[in-house]
């Protein structure tokens, strides 16, 4: 058989075999199926465009767009690996090949299932890898400082292999491919990818933080700004450090939109006011998650700020102030919560905004030691700024008053007080004991004698401040620590005053049980001691202890000069010869005799235990204890004028011509002690869960708080400093005075008091987001305070908020706009409240001492019961916009808000027969609105130099809307709480000039002229609205210039749109009537007074003759004295230099050194008024209100 026939025969036999036919059919079906599957996979198209997407996100998109399931082996495939996806309608296999191949991954597709696995190496590849792998030694350095960076994560790209740098910033990676790459990541630094080499030195640059990446601490949680619906502002530790100033308020002034800092009066106002008075709306201060112990911002324990008195009328007072109890060097961040969505979770006082202070914590890195010191100095204010009269003008004023009978001859009665040296010469001529020529000669000597140099020499000094801070921080795998010690000393311009503070801060964090349990503890202890002496302040004032411009304080040899006050020198000398103590007064001597010493111990302890229930749920139990112990002693030495005056006045002469002392001889020693305790406990559950493209943040919990304030005062007479003992005194025992009448010491001690407040709160907050673009938030809080008695309907209140956010920049239609880094819209609504602090629904009594006649205990009703008193509430609507452009070189954040206030507390008339002429009621309503923005940009940005500029603007106003509020006030320059006007209004008279007798005239409501001596009384209708007393427009502008390691910061602030009344002449020191005693105001403006008919055409200052209180008060309260208070101030110029590594490189233990110099309080750049008046530091006819002179600071920071 031929071969071809044999083949044909075999083929025919095989084909006809049934088994062969089945096999061929099966092969055909399988081939067809595989071709269909392949065709199906090829037919699938993928569109996915996202930078820094993860493999997991890509696999999710594949499932959504194709219906194919994707499986991978955990531990072998890193699904968090970052890729840059840019696929548009691409075949599935192309997508997989492009993404997986570079990562050494492969895949198979079976029945609409994609299986991803690690690509297996061939035998040849494995052999080659053994010989081509290398070991890598490397070091990570900070690109700016050159310092090693510990704990950097070093990952072999495409694998799960990773190591960490040690404390010296070095790492070792064994057996890695020589053609591979490594990825270096660390918090706060930009991620870097480098090709492998045996020896690597990698520099990491500090990450430029985008606006949406800023982390905000609300006290209950930490959230990214990019996911919030509320209005926040954040100040970081770097922002605080850029303003080297001991006063925290000055460091923040002009930096936060919507927040106005009144540095002189130590107040903070967030947006529009929330009370009728406008002065009782401080924000809530939160420190490390809990409210501070009280609402005061800064105490006035030394009465000094910027070399000037904080409150010239207060002797040495001391408060448990919040910002005094925290050192700026210990602050990590300050978050200001401004709208309801941000602050309503805090409930009480949230209507006024919330300031959340977070102290520094340790970081997981090598131990770091930091030392910083700041020294500042400022000269006393310039006397020339007072615009005082010359000595000749002052004596001329005395002569005019003398000629018109204002003064009484002290020789007419031994009880008459002393007169000035100039007045004494005038009386000598009148008595005939001196000639006019002698008088004129003596007055000429006084005209050329000035005590300004002596006031500066003996009463004032350069203000100095020194601040030292030493901290140690670091941490390991399961713990962190931050420990700091601080010392501050403040010496103000007034002699015999000082303040110093010692503080210790410790924040520890420890993790247990594989980081399932975290325990945080914090301790802050502070000891403050201050001394206040008001002698220097009094010498510069126009009061009883002030000095006429020609009165000297010391003689040519520097010995203090004592001047007569109570009696003439002749009478005082006669009494001294009888055994009385000297009765003269010397300001120099008083610097040693009247000191108020305040010592305060403040401690804050907090602890929190956090337990992770799952990787998305945890429970926290936390608590805080605060205690302030304040001990104040006020010693009036026996040699002090006050004690000598008390002893002499209480001493009489009996028939035997001997002295009888009614008051024990010795000093007067007054002590006061107070204790302020605060306990807070909180339980809180947090949930942070992702569901594919959905995310939920939730927190809920409850807290309870108790605040207790106790204290008392005791006065001792006849106190002996050496023996520390005093005499037993019955304050009701009568004694005879030098004047012959009887009196008693009376009760000078306050009662022992105890005030306890408790509140219970339940709270919850939730945020839902979809795709990281759309956010919905809501919060609720239920507050229950014991202040309002037993009726829960009055004492408890629910508060809420709701908000929306849209991150527009993540939408596809903006993806291609590379110049837009961030763009979002926010809107929120919510409520906040204030608990009444000046009244309760139950009666409050003050238990006093025993009645001297009945010996029974006494009590006084201090606050009558008011069962209708309840919370003040506010509802706020906020709309906001945040944007970033050009790689974050330009950013903008803007907000508009509307606020409605309900149940505001108002003083209303009350039946005075019950002992109170007025009581507070929830009778006021108001509304407010405003807008604010901050824009920050880098006009110049280069590697070695840049310019950063930040400008913020705010507008805030309010309007009383309750028509029930009417006013009967008739005083010019007053504030009236009436509907249709802002609560910080000022009403004035319409000035009509002086009449031909030099008396004030004003226009009535009907246009008629009202004379100060006329029969027509002034009514409320005669007043006109003059404007606002607080600035509706305010803000700041900060510019930072950097060249290599040198930086320059210039900061200015502005305030516009408000008014002030001139106070260079005031009613208390303006001569009026027919008699006058004491020191006359020395304002130069008083020299322009009316003197004769016709002067009314050239002056508005009333004359002296026939002047009355009405004439003076109408002049001072008239629109002629109303001025525009708008101003722009240069607040700071700072120059800082970071020493390069080339200078400190030989000292291996030194990481960085920064030195700097600054000047603050540099004065006005511009003022709206044309009278040369600084509206914040008006002269008051004395030297006690001088504008602060420039302060010069020098700072050093060393990191080890």
TrEMBL record:
Chief subcellular location: membrane
Sequence ranges assigned to domain TonB-dependent receptor plug in this UniProt record = 226-354
Indicate what this protein is called per its UniProt record. TonB-dependent receptor plug
Localized where?
Cell outer membrane
Q: Which UniProt keywords apply?
A: Cell outer membrane, Membrane, Receptor, Transmembrane, Transmembrane beta strand, Transport
Q: Name one GO cellular component term.
A: cell outer membrane
Give the membrane topology.
Answer: Multi-pass membrane protein
Q: What is the lineage of its organism?
A: Bacteria, Pseudomonadati, Bacteroidota, Sphingobacteriia, Sphingobacteriales
SUPFAM superfamilies the record matches = Carboxypeptidase regulatory domain-like, Porins
The record ties this protein, via InterPro entries, to: Beta-barrel_TonB_sf, CarboxyPept-like_regulatory, Plug_dom, Plug_dom_sf, TonB-dep_OMP_SusC/RagA, TonB-dep_OMP_SusC/RagA_CS, TonB-dep_rcpt-like
Q: Which family does it belong to?
A: Belongs to the TonB-dependent receptor family.
Entry-linked Gene3D superfamilies: Carboxypeptidase-like, regulatory domain, TonB-dependent receptor, beta-barrel domain, TonB-dependent receptor, plug domain
Q: Name one Pfam family in it.
A: CarbopepD_reg_2
């Amino acid at each position: 058989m031929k071969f071809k026939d044999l083949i044909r025969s075999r083929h025919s036999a095989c084909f006809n075999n049934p088994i062969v036919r089945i096999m061929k059919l099966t092969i055909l079906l399988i081939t067809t199926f595989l071709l269909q599957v392949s065709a199906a996979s090829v037919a699938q198209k993928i569109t996915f465009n996202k930078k820094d997407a993860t493999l997991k996100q890509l696999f999710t998109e594949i499932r959504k767009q194709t219906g194919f399931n994707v499986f991978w082996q955990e531990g072998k495939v890193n699904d968090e690996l970052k890729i840059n996806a840019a696929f548009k309608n691409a075949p599935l296999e192309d997508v997989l090949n492009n993404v997986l191949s570079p990562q050494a991954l492969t895949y198979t597709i079976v029945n609409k299932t994609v299986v991803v696995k690690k690509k297996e190496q061939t035998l040849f590849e494995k052999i080659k890898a053994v010989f081509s792998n290398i070991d890598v030694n490397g070091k990570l350095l900070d690109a700016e400082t050159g310092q090693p960076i510990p704990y950097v994560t070093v990952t072999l790209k495409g694998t799960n292999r990773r190591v960490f740098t040690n404390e010296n910033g070095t790492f070792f990676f064994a057996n890695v491919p020589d053609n591979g790459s490594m990825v270096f990541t660390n918090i706060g630094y930009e991620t870097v990818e480098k090709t492998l080499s045996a020896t690597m030195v990698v520099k990491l640059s500090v990450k430029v933080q985008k606006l949406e990446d800023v982390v905000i601490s609300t006290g209950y949680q930490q959230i990214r700004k990019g996911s919030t619906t509320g209005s926040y502002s954040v100040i970081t530790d770097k922002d605080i450090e850029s303003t080297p100033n001991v006063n925290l308020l000055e460091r923040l002034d002009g930096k936060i939109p919507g927040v106005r800092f009144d540095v002189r009066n130590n107040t903070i106002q967030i947006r529009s006011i929330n009370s009728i008075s406008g002065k009782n709306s401080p924000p809530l201060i939160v420190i490390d998650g809990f409210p501070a112990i009280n609402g005061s911002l800064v105490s006035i324990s030394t009465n000094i700020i910027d070399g000037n008195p904080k409150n010239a009328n207060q002797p040495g007072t001391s408060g448990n102030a919040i910002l005094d109890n925290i050192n700026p060097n210990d602050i990590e961040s300050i978050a200001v919560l401004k709208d309801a969505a941000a602050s309503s979770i805090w409930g009480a006082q949230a209507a006024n905004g919330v300031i959340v202070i977070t102290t520094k914590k340790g970081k997981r890195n090598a131990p770091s030691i930091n030392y910083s010191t700041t020294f500042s100095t400022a000269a006393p204010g310039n006397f020339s700024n007072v615009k005082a009269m010359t000595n000749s003008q002052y004596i001329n004023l005395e002569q005019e008053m003398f000629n018109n009978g204002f003064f009484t001859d002290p020789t007419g009665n031994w009880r008459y007080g002393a007169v000035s040296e100039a007045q004494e010469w005038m009386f000598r001529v009148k008595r005939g004991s001196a000639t006019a020529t002698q008088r004129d000669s003596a007055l000429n000597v006084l005209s050329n004698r000035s005590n300004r140099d002596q006031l500066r020499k003996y009463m004032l000094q350069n203000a100095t401040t020194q601040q030292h801070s030493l901290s140690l921080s670091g941490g390991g795998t399961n713990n962190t620590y931050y420990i700091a010690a601080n010392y501050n000393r403040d010496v103000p311009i007034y002699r015999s005053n000082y303040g110093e503070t010692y503080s210790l801060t410790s924040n520890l964090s420890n993790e247990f049980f594989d980081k399932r349990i975290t325990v945080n503890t914090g301790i802050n202890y502070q000891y403050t001691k201050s001394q206040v002496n008001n002698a220097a302040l009094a010498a510069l004032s126009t009061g009883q202890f002030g000095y006429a411009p020609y009165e000297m304080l010391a003689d040519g040899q520097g010995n203090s000069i004592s001047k007569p006050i109570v009696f003439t020198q002749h009478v005082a000398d006669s009494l001294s010869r009888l055994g009385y103590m000297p009765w003269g007064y010397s300001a120099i001597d008083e610097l040693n005799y009247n000191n108020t010493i305040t010592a305060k111990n403040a401690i804050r302890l907090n602890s929190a235990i956090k337990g992770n229930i799952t990787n998305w749920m945890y429970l926290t139990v936390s608590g805080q204890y605060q205690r302030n112990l304040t001990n104040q002693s006020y010693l009036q030495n026996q040699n002090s004028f006050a004690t000598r005056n008390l002893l002499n006045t209480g001493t009489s002469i009996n028939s035997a011509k001997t002295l009888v002392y009614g008051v024990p001889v010795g000093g007067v020693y007054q002590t006061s002690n107070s204790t302020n305790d605060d306990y807070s406990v909180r339980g809180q559950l947090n949930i942070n869960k992702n569901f594919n493209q959905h995310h939920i943040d939730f927190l809920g919990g409850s807290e309870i708080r108790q605040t207790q304030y106790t204290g008392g005062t005791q006065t001792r007479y006849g106190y002996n400093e050496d023996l520390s003992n005093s005499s037993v005194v019955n304050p009701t025992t009568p004694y005879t005075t030098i004047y012959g009448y009887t009196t008693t010491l009376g009760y000078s001690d306050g009662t022992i008091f105890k005030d306890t407040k408790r509140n219970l709160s339940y709270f919850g907050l939730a945020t839902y987001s979809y795709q990281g673009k759309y956010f919905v938030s809501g919060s609720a809080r239920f507050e229950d305070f014991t202040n309002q008695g037993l009726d829960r309907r009055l004492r408890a209140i629910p508060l809420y908020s709701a908000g929306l956010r849209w991150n527009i920049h993540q939408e596809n239609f903006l993806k291609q706009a590379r110049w837009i880094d961030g763009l979002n819209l926010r809107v929120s609504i919510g409520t906040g409240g204030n608990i009444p602090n000046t009244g309760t629904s139950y009666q409050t009594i003050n238990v006093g001492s025993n009645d001297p006649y009945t010996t029974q205990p006494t009590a006084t009703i201090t606050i009558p019961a008011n069962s209708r008193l309840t919370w003040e509430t506010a509802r706020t609507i906020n709309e906001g916009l945040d944007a970033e452009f050009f790689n974050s070189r330009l950013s903008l954040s803007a907000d508009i808000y509307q606020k409605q206030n309900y149940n505001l507390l108002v003083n209303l008339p009350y039946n005075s027969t019950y002992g109170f002429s007025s009581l507070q009621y929830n009778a006021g309503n108001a509304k407010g609105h405003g807008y604010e923005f901050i824009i920050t940009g880098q006009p110049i940005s280069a590697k070695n130099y840049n310019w950063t500029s930040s400008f913020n603007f705010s507008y805030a106003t309010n309007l009383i809307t309750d028509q029930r509020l009417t006013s009967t006030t008739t005083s010019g320059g007053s504030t009236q709480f009436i509907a249709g006007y802002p609560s910080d209004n000022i009403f004035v008279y319409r000035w009509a000039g002086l009449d031909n007798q030099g008396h004030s005239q004003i226009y009535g409501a009907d246009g008629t002229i009202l004379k100060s001596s006329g029969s027509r009384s002034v009514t409320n209708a005669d007043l006109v609205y003059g404007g606002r007393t607080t600035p509706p427009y305010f803000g700041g502008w900060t510019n930072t210039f950097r060249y290599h390691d040198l930086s320059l910061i210039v900061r200015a602030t502005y305030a516009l749109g408000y008014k002030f009344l001139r106070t260079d002449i005031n009613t208390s020191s303006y001569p009026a009537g027919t008699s006058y005693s004491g020191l006359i105001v020395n304002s130069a403006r008083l020299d322009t007074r009316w003197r004769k008919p016709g002067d009314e055409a050239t002056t508005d200052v009333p004359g002296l003759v026939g002047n009355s209180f009405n004439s003076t008060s109408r002049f001072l309260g008239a629109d002629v004295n109303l001025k525009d208070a708008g101003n722009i101030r240069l607040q700071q110029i700072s120059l800082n230099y970071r020493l390069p590594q080339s200078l400190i490189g030989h000292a291996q233990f030194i990481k960085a050194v920064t030195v700097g110099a600054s000047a603050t309080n540099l004065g006005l750049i511009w003022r709206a008024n044309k009278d040369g008046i600084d509206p914040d530091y008006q002269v008051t006819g004395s030297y006690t209100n001088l504008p602060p002179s420039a302060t010069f600071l020098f700072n050093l920071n060393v990191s080890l």
